[in-house]
Amino acid sequence: MRLTQIKELLNGSFITSSDCGEVEFKKTFACDLMSDVLALVDEDVILLTGLINIQTIRTAEMKDIKCVIFVRGKEPSSDVVNLAQEKGIILLKTTLTLFESCGTLYNAGMKGIDLYE
């Protein structure tokens, strides 16, 4: 699914550069516990989270996550945005809850990660 479509489905907006809308993603992982992201993510995903601190970006960098979507209308600080830009991580935000965001993307055909493979 293209990032522009994801943005539209979530009624979201880009925090970082919006010239990456044609980037495609196949899977999503939703979590506020970065330890779970580190332990469970082993594939290219979009990360949906309500955690807006530097650790989110550092975790995304470690797991090669190219896009993070912040939920519940949360606004990351400029330090978080600057680090994401420096690391080439796309940031979006939506006012939807984590639950609503996941359900919307799932209904549109987005898959989650495979935990038991």
Q: What brief labels describe this structure?
A:
alpha/beta, Udp-n-acetylmuramoylalanyl-d-glutamate--2,6- Diaminopimelate Ligase, Chain: A, domain 1, 6-stranded mixed β-sheet, 5 helices, 17% strand, DRTGG domain-containing protein
How would you portray this structure in words?
This is DRTGG domain-containing protein. InterPro entries: Ser_kin/Pase_Hpr-like_N_sf. It is a single chain. With 117 residues, the chain is an alpha/beta fold. The chain has a single domain, classed as HprK N-terminal domain-like (Udp-n-acetylmuramoylalanyl-d-glutamate--2,6- Diaminopimelate Ligase, Chain: A, domain 1, 3-Layer(aba) Sandwich). The chain has helices spanning 3-9, 34-40, 54-62, 78-87, 98-107, and strands at residues 13-14, 27-30, 46-49, 67-70, 90-93, 111-112. α4 links the parallel β4 (67-70) and β5. The relative contact order is 0.25.
Summarize the structure.
The protein has about 120 residues and is of the alpha/beta class.
Strand ordering within the main sheet:
1-5-4-3-2-6
Strand percentage: 15-25%
- Indicate the CATH class: Alpha Beta
What is the rounded distance between the termini?
22 Å
CATH-derived architecture: 3-Layer(aba) Sandwich
Characterize the biggest β-sheet. Answer: 6 strands, mixed
Q: What's the number of domains?
A: 1
Weakly predicted, low-confidence segments: none
C-alpha geometry: globular
